[in-house]
Amino acid sequence: MKWRTSLQSVILPLALLALWHVATNYGWVSPQRLPTPLAVLQRWWAYLLPTTPYSLDSGAWWRWAISGELLLDIAASMYRVVLGFALGALLGLPLGLLMGANQRIYALCNSTVQVLRPIPPIAFIPLAMLWFGLGNPPAVFLIALGAFFPILMNTIAGVRQVDGIYLRAARNLGASQWTIFARVILPASTPSILTGVRVGIGTAFIVVIVAEMIAANNGLGFRISEAREYFWLDKILAGMLTIGMLGMAIDAAMNHLTNYLLRWHRGLEH
Question: Among residues 72, 95, 173, 221, which is most buried (max CB within 10 A)?
């Protein structure tokens, strides 16, 4: 059954790849507008390979493994994503729990949150560059901003939607406020929180590409922008392919983590 599901999942990508191959090889689309799949694959492979060989006797053989331009760009982008997402989560999760559990804090902060939330992180790029200059700081700030609001809003929603029956039952059994929060509210809101985390890390990955196109000198976004200036369409598509594969891997990892942490919840559903 699993192999059938796996086969079904690759039918559409293979069909699109075949259509791309036919369209570019039979002249339906100009190569100047869309390179062939083989050209993109060749560029991606050249982008991946290390550019400077190292001898095993040189004492720096380990650099060979990370000297490829693509690997360095992936490392730079992922560093920014991890750091920015961590900052956004460290701010959004506690504030979301407080706003969800305390009506006074919710009333105090909600209007400000609702004003700032619709503003896309990209709109903050000029301010980020003025405040932090170029390089990692503005990119990390924008990523943290992009991850903050999905985590915050889903955490608030998860806490506020906890069934009142659970809360009343815990109070009737003599549970303290902290016990109710730790043993009732937090577990019941975990599915919504993890949904916010999954959306937040996806948003962070989108924001890092945009930020690198404008305010960085390395990373996948910077490399795509550089390729655009030289009309290297095959390298643009190679970078986009890499972003897609990384995004899919991150989402799959988050899905597995969510299923693991919520295995008790899945059991209740079944």
Answer: 221
